[in-house]
Design a protein that fits this description.
The complex is a heterodimer of chains A (195) and B (201). Chain A is an alpha+beta fold. Chain A has helices at 16-27, 34-84, and strands at residues 88-97, 100-109, 114-120, 129-137, 140-147, 155-160, 169-178, 189-194. In chain A, strands 1-2-3-6 form a 4-stranded antiparallel sheet, with helices on one face. A 4-stranded antiparallel sheet of chain A has the order 5-4-7-8, with no helix packed on it. The model of chain A has no long low-confidence stretch (mean pLDDT 88). Chain B has 201 residues and is mainly alpha-helical. The relative contact order of chain B is 0.14. Chain B has a two-stranded antiparallel ribbon. Classes of the chains: A alpha+beta (195), B mainly alpha (201).
Chain lengths: 195, 201
């Protein structure tokens, strides 16, 4: 019968406003799960956001990878075409830059009017300079490519030859020009070759 | 003094059924019947009005949301509520003790309390206005009939939530003595209060 021992305590009149407060609290929808639910919702949103970001990122990287693969395949195809093309002529030009001996190799695909140019052993340019490649045509020198070279590495590029209307290509030249390039050769000539 | 109304076991069962069916008015009725005692127990244990009111809120919230846990076969509704009140109050007391090791106010409150079981004049409502007052007097009488040493261990156990070992330390008595006193006290109280089945108002 000790269940009744609580009745030993002196009764205490509650303040009148306590009744409403107590009943309102007891009858209110339980909020015990609000905080955990909110935390869980935030977690789910964060995970969903991360998953979405990862999905998008993977998509972007996949697209970039596919693009690069396509470019590599195109380059391989281009190089193979130059190297194995029956109309390709190989021109190798020894050059000397900055006290170093190098070479510029031109694969001249006359059937497709394209050049594949490979530069080996060229000295890196000064900060404000670049190598500029020129077509020598019957109408004068015409810029072919601007090649700023900051590292001591081989460089390969494919070039479209100018259409006959703009001039018939007779040879090639390379000079050292300002970094932005020149309209006509103005700096030291690296090579000048009539084909 | 107004004529006493009854909250018999039948009434308690009816109230319990209504609570279980989600009748909000039943909770308000229950509050009117027992809030005075719930607050009394909580204040008796905590000696702090704000904390005691917080416990009252806890108790009624627990009753409302966990009324299904009350097994009517094991006893009436009101003692179950008193038990919840006691446990919630002791939980609050333990929390406070953890944070408030010095216990100065606690000690002062104990001193101010004086006799363990005497009704406090402060905030004590007029007996005629308190449902359950006759029961209060009966339980008091049952406790008062116990020898002082048994009364003391019952009070320490119930209102301070002390373990047998803690009571023994507090009273500088052997553990076995404390256990014997508690067992005898409970036996006597059971004999004396066995007839209590209804909650009087």
């Amino acid at each position: 019968m000790t269940d009744w021992l609580g009745m030993l305590a002196p009764p205490r009149a509650p303040r009148p406003e306590l009744r409403e407060r107590v009943l309102a609290r007891a009858l209110a929808p339980r909020r015990r799960w609000v905080a955990p639910l909110a935390a869980a919702a935030v977690l789910v949103l964060a995970l969903a956001g991360s998953a979405w970001w990862a999905y998008r990122r993977i998509g972007t990287l996949t697209a970039e990878r596919d693009g690069l693969v396509a470019r590599v395949e195109a380059l391989q195809d281009t190089v193979a075409t130059f190297i194995h093309g029956p109309a390709t002529r190989l021109i190798q030009i020894p050059v000397s830059t900055g006290g170093r001996v190098g070479a510029v190799t031109i694969f001249d695909d006359s059937a497709r009017h394209r050049w594949l140019v490979r530069c080996d052993g060229l000295a890196p340019n000064a900060r404000d300079q670049a190598y500029q490649l020129w077509f020598i045509t019957d109408k004068g020198m015409m810029t072919a490519a601007l090649m700023p070279m900051d590292e001591d590495q081989p460089m390969v590029m494919a070039l479209e030859m100018p259409p006959p209307a703009r001039g018939h290509v007779l040879g090639a030249a390379m000079s050292i020009e300002p970094r932005a390039g020149s309209a006509s050769p103005s700096g030291p000539m690296v090579f000048h070759l009539q084909l | 003094m107004t004529s006493p109304k009854r909250l018999s076991q039948v009434d308690q069962r009816s109230l319990e059924r209504r609570l279980k069916s989600g009748d909000e008015h039943a909770l308000a009725e229950l509050y009117d019947h027992v809030a005075t005692w719930v607050l009394g127990i909580a204040f008796r244990i905590l000696h702090d009005e704000d904390e005691a009111e917080e416990v009252v809120g806890d108790v009624f919230e627990q009753v409302w949301h966990h009324i299904d846990q009350h097994d009517a076969r094991r006893g009436p509704l009101v003692p179950w509520i008193l038990w919840i009140t006691r446990n919630r109050s002791l939980d609050a007391l333990r929390r406070r003790r953890r944070w408030w090791r010095k216990g100065e106010r606690w000690g002062q409150a104990q001193i101010a309390e004086g006799a363990d079981v005497a009704p406090s004049a402060l905030n004590a409502p007029h007996e005629a206005a308190v449902p359950g007052w006759p029961l209060h007097r009966e339980v008091h009488a049952a406790l008062a009939a116990l020898p002082e040493e048994q009364r003391r261990v019952v009070t320490l156990s119930y209102f301070e939530g002390l373990s047998h070992r803690e009571i023994a330390r507090r009273l500088h008595q052997p553990l076995g003595t404390v256990k014997t006193r508690l067992r005898m006290a409970h036996q006597r109280l059971t004999d004396r209060l066995q007839h209590l089945k209804d909650w009087f108002e």
